[in-house]
Hints:
Layout: E1 2-6, H1 13-28, E2 34-39, E3 44-47, E4 64-66, E5 73-76, E6 80-86, H2 96-112, E7 119-121, E8 124-130, E9 136-147, E10 150-158, E11 178-179, H3 191-206, E12 209-211
Parallel strand pairs: 1-2, 1-12, 3-4, 9-11
Antiparallel strand pairs: 2-6, 3-5, 6-10, 7-8, 8-9, 9-10
Amino acid sequence: MIEWRISDKPVAYADAVAAMERRAAAVAEGRANELVWLLEHPPLYTAGTSAKDSDLLAPARFPVHATGRGGQFTYHGPGQRVGYVMMDLRQRDHDVRRFVRELEEWLIRTLAAFNVRGERRDGRVGIWVAQRNGKEHKIAALGIRVRRSITFHGISLNVDPDLEHFSGIVPCGIAEHGVTSLHALGLTPAMMDVDLALRSAFEEVFGATIDETAMPERALCPT
């Protein structure tokens, strides 16, 4: 069973990582169900395992967190919906590439619910939106880590973040393209509407989920 959890308040990044690691260990040991956790973070930058120091353009602007996920620098902050996925690849033929494609499909279907065409691009991680002027902007990112065949970290979707905050990094090491959001595209869904679209699209790709009700406090992921 895949559980579904939404945090109502921003979650500190270090707390989120610690909670994900606890949950991933519990899933590996059969003590907990798989989990999708939707949340927001305070403004921060994260450095993936391929991050280059030269891509951090404003190191003093926001806290910078080194992380074990794949990828390079990315930004998290209010108005961006982050989805952390603690999933068991032992139930999915240990196929990491297929799992990443399924995460991409999840994002593409979520965007389609708002009549936005999200697309993959060879050689560029994430989901992209083609602009009328011929340029392409990134609207969603993804990066995972796998330990003991359990995934953690996941995806992020720009709903209405401060896009200027991305200027402190070279997002995912790609300088020639910009970033966008649903609001920048003229769409103004509430975060609750985005969450509903994310859940519906997730269930289309991965199967049904159940609500996590083990803890009344939803700010941190349980073990």
